[in-house]
């Protein structure tokens, strides 16, 4: 039961990026979300949700019982994966925030002038904050968006400081907090009871040893580590007898929307017959995040074969973050780039890359393989068995728009008087 002033309100809650760590902390939040499939995912995950248009919901119903306030407005209007009309509309959004902070609702007029109607959603948190501030709430605020929204967060910060909050705003890299993805986000943290500050990074591009000046930092978590590829002693076959990531052509017709998991389910993947001059590097079970926090049934989460070698060539797998020309491509030994999903950038794929200049004309590189929703979710630090609802497109849309739960955990912990241990989401006594 939610008692007086214990409620955490989560606007634009999505599939549960903030809710997952809150529940690990033993705190129940209420998420406001419009997307049907995100709501179904939340329901399957046991998360309290109100399916509603955040812009239409009466915010005063939360006054008098709200401790924490979270907001991650939709990023499509601002994201580099879209048309970025939010930048064109930014002066209108700033005006809406200023008006709402003064108790004036000019949204209808300003919305009519916006190039992208989603732009003004970034002003909605101020409508709720104004209503809550009238009763001295909330105690703390956490907001997240794409980097281009930072100027707007600074406007929020100035208003919140005038209401008695300590506020910090800035850009954080998710990889610095153990997320296997270099996802940069504009963050706002505010508190009435403590000095607002960003959480101390736990990871770095290069590992840093402990010193007299403070604890060390682990190396950034790679995709291979997160997915449990190639770390311990139980090998998993990585070569397809009919072609695929061990060498030879893709076993499905070109352009078919198939994944490696589909192939395994059909029974087409098996250890390849011995080939003279070919040295296999088998995939093995790992000790990364997925091995600790979730599996598909009794089988560890798996992915494309990390490598295969021959006397002539050596292929490794990398992840292409979207289908645009300038897409980020990262080796599996690195964190992923920011994962984009949507109608303009919906083909996040594993691609084979040669590690030597030599080319083997008899063994062309494997065809790209579409990433699975489970793999993408793990790279966002959701549990491997998270109950994603909807078809593949609907699932990918939810994943790409969510805040990584592990980043959210670090942002929330100080406000909740919790301390994160080195292990994911484990709390110190």
What's the layout of helices and strands?
Blueprint (H helix, E strand, L loop, with lengths): L6 E5 L7 H6 L4 E5 L2 H9 L3 E4 L14 E6 L13 H17 L5 H7 L10 H10 L6 E6 L4 H13 L3 E8 L10 E8 L11 E2 L13 E2 L3 H5 L7 E2 L23 H6 L12 E4 L1 E2 L4 H5 L13 E4 L3 E7 L8 E3 L17 E6 L14 E2 L2 H7 L12 H10 L3 H8 L17
Parallel strand pairs: 1-2, 1-4, 2-3, 4-5, 8-9
Antiparallel strand pairs: 5-7, 6-7, 10-12, 11-13, 13-14, 14-15, 14-16, 16-17
Describe, in plain words, how this protein is organized in 3D:
The protein has 429 residues and is α/β, with parallel strands linked by helices. 24% of the residues lie in helices and 18% in strands. It is built from 12 helices and 17 strands. Strands 3-2-1-4-5-7-6 form a 7-stranded mixed β-sheet, sandwiched between helices. Strand 13 (307-310) and strand 14 (314-320) form a beta hairpin. The chain is globular. The two termini are 24 Å apart.
Key terms for this structure?
17 strands, alpha/beta, 429 residues, seven-stranded mixed beta sheet
Class by helix and strand content? alpha/beta
Q: Under the CATH scheme, which class of one domain? A: Alpha Beta
CATH topology (level 3) name of one domain: Rossmann fold
Strand order of the largest sheet: 3-2-1-4-5-7-6
Distance between the termini: 24 Å
- Give the C-alpha Rg: 23 Å
Major sheet: size, sense and barrel closure? 7 strands, mixed
The helical percent reads 10-25%
Identify the overall geometry: globular
User: Could you tell me the strand content as a percent range?
Assistant: 15-25%
* Unreliable residue runs: 231-303, 305-313
What is the number of E strands?
17
CATH architecture type of one domain: 3-Layer(aba) Sandwich
Average pLDDT works out at: 78
Helical stretch tally: 12
Order of helices and strands: EHEHEEHHHEHEEEEHEHEEHEEEEEHHH
Assign the CATH superfamily of one domain.
Answer: Vaccinia Virus protein VP39
């Amino acid at each position: 039961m939610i008692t007086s002033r214990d409620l955490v309100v989560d606007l634009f809650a999505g599939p549960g990026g903030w809710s997952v760590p809150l529940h690990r902390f033993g705190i129940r939040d209420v998420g406001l979300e419009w997307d049907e499939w995100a709501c179904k995912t939340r329901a399957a995950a046991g998360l309290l949700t109100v399916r509603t248009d955040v812009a239409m919901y009466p915010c005063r119903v939360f006054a008098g019982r709200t401790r924490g306030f979270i907001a991650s407005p939709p990023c499509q209007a601002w994201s580099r994966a879209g048309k970025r009309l939010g930048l064109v509309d930014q002066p209108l959004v700033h005006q809406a925030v200023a008006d709402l902070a003064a108790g004036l609702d000019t949204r209808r007029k300003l919305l009519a002038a916006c190039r992208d109607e989603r732009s003004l959603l970034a002003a909605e948190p101020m409508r709720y904050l104004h209503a809550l501030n009238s009763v001295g709430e909330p105690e703390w605020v956490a907001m997240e968006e794409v980097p281009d929204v930072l100027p707007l967060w600074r406007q929020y910060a100035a208003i919140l400081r005038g209401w008695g909050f300590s506020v910090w705003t800035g850009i954080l890299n998710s990889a610095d907090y153990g997320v296997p993805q270099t996802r940069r986000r504009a963050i706002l943290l505010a508190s009435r009871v403590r000095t607002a500050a960003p959480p101390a990074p736990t990871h770095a591009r290069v590992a840093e040893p402990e010193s007299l000046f403070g604890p060390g930092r682990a190396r950034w978590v790679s995709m291979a580590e997160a997915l449990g590829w190639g770390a311990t002693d139980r090998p998993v076959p990585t070569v397809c007898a009919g072609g695929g990531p061990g060498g030879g052509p893709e076993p499905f017709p070109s352009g078919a929307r198939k994944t490696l998991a589909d192939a395994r389910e059909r029974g087409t993947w098996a250890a390849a017959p011995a080939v003279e001059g070919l040295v296999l590097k088998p995939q093995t079970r790992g000790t990364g995040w997925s091995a600790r926090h979730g599996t598909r049934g009794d089988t560890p989460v798996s992915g494309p074969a990390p490598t295969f070698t021959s006397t002539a060539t050596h292929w490794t797998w990398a992840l292409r973050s979207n289908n645009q020309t300038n897409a980020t491509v990262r080796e599996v030994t690195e964190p992923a780039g920011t994962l984009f999903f949507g109608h303009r950038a919906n083909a996040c794929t594993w691609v084979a890359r040669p590690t030597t200049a030599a080319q083997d004309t008899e063994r062309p590189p494997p065809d790209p393989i579409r990433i699975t929703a489970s793999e993408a979710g793990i790279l966002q630090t959701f549990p491997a068995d998270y109950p994603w609802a909807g078809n593949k497109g609907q699932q990918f849309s939810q994943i790409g728009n969510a805040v990584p739960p592990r980043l959210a955990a670090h942002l929330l912990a100080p406000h909740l008087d919790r301390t994160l241990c080195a292990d994911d989401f484990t709390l110190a006594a």
